[in-house]
Amino acid sequence: MCLLSGGLDSSTCLALARRDGYACYALSFDYGQRHRIELEAAARVAAGIGVERHIVAKIGLDAFGGSALTDQEIEVPKGELSQGIPVTYVPARNTIFLSFALAWAEVLESSDIFIGVNALDYSGYPDCRPEFIQAYERMANLATKAGVEGRTHLKIHTPLLELSKAEIVKLAHKLGLDFSLTHSCYDPDAAGRPCGQCDSCLLRAKGFSEAGIEDR
Known about the structure:
Largest sheet: 3 strands, parallel
Strand content: 5-15%
Structural class: mainly alpha
CATH architecture: 3-Layer(aba) Sandwich
Order of helices and strands: EHEHEHEHHEHH
Oligomer: single chain
Radius of gyration: 17 Å
Number of domains: 1
Number of helices: 7
């Protein structure tokens, strides 16, 4: 079970799970994000890597707003990396995403969830930290019928957690990931072209530059 946004990190995570022999099921979310075009990227990546099934769950976090990604009245910061927790943080997003993944994993009788969170070159999101993942994993093993009955012991895999963005780019290149399939921008134009100035674009550019690899 792999969470797949269609961005660089989640796509690399999926490619890594596939390389390591897992039968991969990909889960993406239409949550009211302004960069909904990432779902097209997720579909391309899922098809390109070859997954058993790809589901897009619609959950509508834009009903709450509170983030530049789900509220059109909040502008996406441009030009320099944000300090602290930026306005692109979506309240409880990874908690919600992992809950959906946990539900599907239990149905599939799977013990493994992959998520491409990163604690080094990331945008300050609290739900990308190792403390959060560890706490969620403990909770997940208490929360399911399969866990209580001892049929599964869930493991949340975070293979990119301690990698720099440059190291992630190098790993993706080694895995043969087609970078042109992915999408990272928080605020693309109507044609889906990246703005080049938001946190996600800047982090991606930094990673490719430091890795010495061309971003197609």
